[in-house]
Write a structure and sequence with these properties.
The chain is an alpha/beta fold and about 350 residues long. The protein has a domain of about 210 residues: Rossmann fold, CATH 3.40.50. About 30% of the residues lie in helices and about 15% in strands. It is built from eleven helices and eleven strands. The strands form two sheets. Strands 2-1-3-4-6-5-11-7 form an eight-stranded mixed sheet, sandwiched between helices. The protein has a three-stranded antiparallel sheet with strand order 8-9-10. Strand 9 and strand 10 form a beta hairpin. Helix 1 crosses helix 6 and helix 3 crosses helix 4.
Length: about 350
């Protein structure tokens, strides 16, 4: 994505709408799947970016989420298992002017594709990663995934999973991702905000999206999405604002030294006493991504949603092009035949 604003539409044509980004393909996900909502929100926000459809590329791997390119009226590629991030990296390196989106799942990008995911993040390509997390393998009919909780009973773990799950955002922070955020399929307004923030970031954006698989892992995130529990279980992060939550915003979080602590404003605490969110604070972000305990246990922390961390650093493609320009300016354009000939010769007697 270029830093230069692009026109909303070509001269003399009407601005694009969400319908312009929908294809004539039948959307084939299970009825009630959270992917429908995510698709709708992506189609809704893309016209706001002002990027022509021909300059947008959506790349997916293998999984339910990976059908995404078929339903987007842009360029796209349904690639192979776990390699969407690698293919997207190559594309961005050679065509840096394109807006590249990777649509992937927790199994696709954190299992067979885990290596490619972390290297894209550390290299900081200007690519948007949308990780649909339903804590299950849906396409292959309900096996446990890298984000499934311990003791999860599935077709592949009939006695309960003994694996410790990945925390996707902690993994992204460990790989030095320059933008880390989380949203959910059942909060369209918030998801649109996070998609736009991801797009606006110059560098690798990692957006985890809680996505309900109503066939093989229904209600995995119900406590965070249902009206009766959402206010007390979700902490919406806002830049420069105190960490407040609860139905009446009567609960908050303070830092007791270096340790987060839950407090109630009825006990005499005020907003000025609370932890103030700063998206640029790497160390506090490291703590926030660890608010990840079992939501059904007493005294647990609410699950944060929003932008955890954002920083500015050079992207891989910017550094690559700068390096190429410097070489061309000092050595000129190369000659492939001479390169293949090499500089050394030898005689075999």
């Amino acid at each position: 994505m270029s830093d230069v604003a692009m026109p909303s539409a070509a001269a003399g044509t009407a601005p694009l709408t969400a319908k312009d980004f929908a294809t004539d393909q039948e959307v084939r996900w299970c009825p009630g799947c959270g992917d429908y909502s995510i698709l709708k929100q992506v189609q809704t926000i893309l016209p706001q970016t002002g990027i022509p459809r021909e300059d947008i590329m959506i790349i997916s791997g293998i999984g339910c989420s990976s059908r995404f390119p078929y339903y987007m009226n842009t360029y796209g590629m349904h690639s192979i298992h776990g390699r969407a991030t690698a293919i997207a990296s190559g594309l961005k390196a050679t065509r840096p002017e394109l807006s590249v989106w990777v649509v992937t799942g927790d199994g696709d990008s954190l299992s067979i594709g885990g290596n490619h995911t972390i290297h894209l993040l550390r290299r900081n390509f200007d690519i948007n990663i949308l990780l649909f997390n339903n804590q299950i393998y849906g396409l292959t009919k309900g096996q446990y995934s890298p984000t499934s909780e311990e003791n999860k009973v599935t077709k592949s773990t009939p006695m309960g999973s003994i694996d410790h799950p990945f925390n996707p955002l902690a993994l992204a922070m460990g790989a030095d991702a320059s933008f880390v955020a989380r949203s959910m399929d059942r909060d369209p307004k918030h998801l649109q905000q996070m998609l736009l923030r991801s797009h606006a970031h110059h560098g690798s954006s990692f957006l985890e999206i809680y996505q309900n698989c109503n066939i093989f892992n229904d209600a995995a995130f119900e406590i965070f999405t249902e009206k009766g529990t959402k206010a007390d279980e979700v902490l919406f992060l806002e830049q420069g604002q105190p960490l407040l939550y609860g139905t009446t915003k009567d609960k908050g979080i303070i830092l007791d030294g270096y340790k987060p602590k839950l407090v109630n404003l009825s006990d005499g605490y005020t907003g000025s006493d609370l932890w103030i969110h700063d998206e640029r604070d790497f160390f506090k972000a490291q703590m926030l991504v660890r608010f990840f305990d079992d939501p059904h246990t007493e005294g647990h922390f609410p699950r944060p949603m929003g932008v955890f961390y954002e920083t500015d650093r050079s992207t891989y493609e910017d550094a690559l092009n700068l390096q190429l320009e410097e070489i061309l300016s000092t050595k000129g354009k190369g000659n492939l035949d001479k390169l293949l000939e090499g500089k050394e010769t030898w005689i075999i007697e």
